[in-house]
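C-alpha coordinates in:
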Protein backbone atom coordinates (compact mmCIF):
# COMPACT_ATOMS: atom_id res chain seq x y z
CA UNK A 1 0.00 0.00 0.00
CA UNK A 2 1.25 3.45 -0.82
CA UNK A 3 0.23 6.47 1.23
CA UNK A 4 1.96 9.17 -0.81
CA UNK A 5 1.17 12.75 0.03
CA UNK A 6 0.11 15.26 -2.56
CA UNK A 7 2.20 18.40 -3.10
CA UNK A 8 1.20 21.34 -0.90
CA UNK A 9 -2.14 22.70 -2.01
CA UNK A 10 -2.73 20.00 -4.63
CA UNK A 11 -6.07 18.21 -4.45
CA UNK A 12 -6.01 14.59 -3.31
CA UNK A 13 -7.38 12.22 -5.92
CA UNK A 14 -10.89 10.97 -5.26
CA UNK A 15 -9.82 7.32 -5.23
CA UNK A 16 -6.38 7.71 -3.65
CA UNK A 17 -6.00 6.28 -0.14
CA UNK A 18 -5.55 8.88 2.56
CA UNK A 19 -5.77 9.41 6.28
CA UNK A 20 -7.44 12.33 8.05
CA UNK A 21 -6.72 13.38 11.61
CA UNK A 22 -10.10 14.54 12.91
CA UNK A 23 -9.00 15.34 16.49
CA UNK A 24 -6.22 14.80 18.99
CA UNK A 25 -6.26 15.36 22.73
CA UNK A 26 -4.97 14.45 26.17
CA UNK A 27 -7.30 11.73 27.37
CA UNK A 28 -5.64 11.08 30.71
CA UNK A 29 -2.63 12.56 32.48
CA UNK A 30 -1.22 11.71 35.89
CA UNK A 31 2.01 13.13 37.31
CA UNK A 32 3.17 11.97 40.73
CA UNK A 33 6.12 13.82 42.19
CA UNK A 34 6.75 12.34 45.66
CA UNK A 35 10.31 13.62 45.88
CA UNK A 36 9.59 17.26 45.01
CA UNK A 37 10.98 18.44 48.36
CA UNK A 38 14.30 16.65 47.71
CA UNK A 39 14.80 17.96 44.20
CA UNK A 40 17.96 19.91 45.07
CA UNK A 41 19.90 16.66 45.51
CA UNK A 42 18.17 15.13 42.48
CA UNK A 43 20.89 16.11 40.01
CA UNK A 44 23.73 14.31 41.77
CA UNK A 45 22.98 10.82 40.43
CA UNK A 46 21.55 9.80 37.05
CA UNK A 47 18.06 8.31 37.55
CA UNK A 48 16.88 4.94 36.25
CA UNK A 49 14.07 5.54 33.77
CA UNK A 50 11.55 2.78 33.12
CA UNK A 51 9.15 3.44 30.25
CA UNK A 52 6.23 1.48 28.83
CA UNK A 53 4.30 2.17 25.64
CA UNK A 54 0.88 0.80 24.71
CA UNK A 55 -1.36 1.40 21.70
CA UNK A 56 -5.10 0.74 21.63
CA UNK A 57 -7.74 1.49 19.03
CA UNK A 58 -11.49 1.23 18.66
CA UNK A 59 -13.93 2.03 15.86
CA UNK A 60 -16.12 5.09 16.19
CA UNK A 61 -19.08 6.53 14.38
CA UNK A 62 -22.20 4.96 12.98
CA UNK A 63 -20.38 3.38 10.04
CA UNK A 64 -17.18 2.54 11.92
CA UNK A 65 -15.32 4.69 9.42
CA UNK A 66 -13.37 6.56 12.12
CA UNK A 67 -11.12 5.16 14.82
CA UNK A 68 -9.96 6.45 18.17
CA UNK A 69 -6.31 5.55 18.81
CA UNK A 70 -4.82 5.79 22.30
CA UNK A 71 -1.08 6.14 22.79
CA UNK A 72 -0.35 5.40 26.45
CA UNK A 73 3.11 6.16 27.79
CA UNK A 74 4.07 5.39 31.38
CA UNK A 75 7.37 6.68 32.75
CA UNK A 76 8.86 5.95 36.16
CA UNK A 77 12.07 7.59 37.36
CA UNK A 78 13.95 6.23 40.39
CA UNK A 79 17.26 6.68 42.15
CA UNK A 80 18.06 3.48 43.97
CA UNK A 81 14.70 2.62 45.61
CA UNK A 82 13.68 6.27 45.85
CA UNK A 83 10.86 7.21 43.43
CA UNK A 84 11.43 10.60 41.81
CA UNK A 85 8.37 10.84 39.59
CA UNK A 86 5.78 8.75 37.77
CA UNK A 87 3.92 9.91 34.66
CA UNK A 88 0.99 8.16 33.04
CA UNK A 89 -0.14 9.84 29.81
CA UNK A 90 -2.81 8.70 27.38
CA UNK A 91 -2.78 10.88 24.29
CA UNK A 92 -5.51 10.07 21.78
CA UNK A 93 -6.55 10.92 18.27
CA UNK A 94 -9.51 10.27 16.04
CA UNK A 95 -8.54 9.15 12.56
CA UNK A 96 -10.53 8.53 9.42
CA UNK A 97 -9.32 6.41 6.51
CA UNK A 98 -10.62 6.97 3.01
CA UNK A 99 -10.13 4.59 0.10
CA UNK A 100 -7.95 2.32 2.25
CA UNK A 101 -8.33 -1.43 1.84
CA UNK A 102 -9.64 -3.20 4.94
CA UNK A 103 -6.42 -5.24 5.32
CA UNK A 104 -4.32 -2.07 5.42
CA UNK A 105 -6.26 -0.35 8.21
CA UNK A 106 -4.87 -2.37 11.13
CA UNK A 107 -1.18 -1.64 10.37
CA UNK A 108 -2.06 2.04 9.96
CA UNK A 109 -3.82 2.05 13.35
CA UNK A 110 -0.87 0.40 15.09
CA UNK A 111 2.03 2.12 13.31
CA UNK A 112 1.09 5.31 11.46
CA UNK A 113 -1.47 6.77 13.89
CA UNK A 114 0.77 6.44 16.99
CA UNK A 115 3.66 7.83 14.94
CA UNK A 116 1.54 10.94 14.30
CA UNK A 117 0.53 11.21 17.98
CA UNK A 118 4.02 10.67 19.42
CA UNK A 119 5.57 14.15 18.94
CA UNK A 120 2.71 15.74 20.88
CA UNK A 121 3.00 13.13 23.65
CA UNK A 122 6.75 13.71 23.80
CA UNK A 123 6.24 17.45 24.19
CA UNK A 124 3.73 16.97 27.03
CA UNK A 125 6.13 14.62 28.86
CA UNK A 126 8.98 17.14 28.50
CA UNK A 127 6.83 20.00 29.79
CA UNK A 128 5.34 18.12 32.74
CA UNK A 129 8.76 16.98 33.99
CA UNK A 130 10.13 20.51 33.60
CA UNK A 131 7.13 21.90 35.51
CA UNK A 132 7.74 19.23 38.17
CA UNK A 133 11.20 20.65 38.82
CA UNK A 134 13.30 18.24 36.73
CA UNK A 135 15.11 18.68 33.45
CA UNK A 136 12.75 18.05 30.51
CA UNK A 137 12.35 14.36 29.77
CA UNK A 138 13.26 13.99 26.10
CA UNK A 139 12.26 10.61 24.70
CA UNK A 140 13.83 9.31 21.49
CA UNK A 141 11.43 8.64 18.60
CA UNK A 142 9.70 5.27 18.81
CA UNK A 143 9.44 2.80 15.94
CA UNK A 144 5.94 1.37 16.36
CA UNK A 145 6.44 -1.41 13.79
CA UNK A 146 8.11 -3.82 16.28
CA UNK A 147 5.26 -3.19 18.76
CA UNK A 148 2.73 -4.08 16.06
CA UNK A 149 4.67 -7.21 15.06
CA UNK A 150 4.85 -8.29 18.74
CA UNK A 151 1.08 -7.85 19.02
CA UNK A 152 0.60 -10.03 15.92
CA UNK A 153 2.84 -12.75 17.44
CA UNK A 154 0.95 -12.58 20.74
CA UNK A 155 -2.37 -12.82 18.92
CA UNK A 156 -1.19 -15.87 16.95
CA UNK A 157 0.10 -17.52 20.14
CA UNK A 158 -3.27 -17.00 21.85
CA UNK A 159 -5.08 -18.58 18.90
CA UNK A 160 -2.67 -21.55 18.75
CA UNK A 161 -2.56 -22.20 22.53
CA UNK A 162 -5.00 -24.85 23.78
CA UNK A 163 -7.66 -23.48 26.12
CA UNK A 164 -6.08 -25.06 29.20
CA UNK A 165 -2.67 -23.49 28.46
CA UNK A 166 -3.85 -19.87 28.65
CA UNK A 167 -2.18 -17.90 31.48
CA UNK A 168 -4.04 -17.56 34.76
CA UNK A 169 -6.24 -14.48 34.71
CA UNK A 170 -6.33 -14.40 30.91
CA UNK A 171 -9.95 -13.61 29.87
CA UNK A 172 -9.65 -16.08 26.97
CA UNK A 173 -9.37 -18.86 29.56
CA UNK A 174 -13.02 -18.46 30.58
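Residues out:
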Amino acid sequence: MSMESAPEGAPIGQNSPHLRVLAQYVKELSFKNPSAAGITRAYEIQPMIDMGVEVKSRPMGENGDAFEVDLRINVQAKRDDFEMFNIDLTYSGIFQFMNVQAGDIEPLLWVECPRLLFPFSRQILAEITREGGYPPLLINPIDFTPLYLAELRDREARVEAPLGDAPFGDPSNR
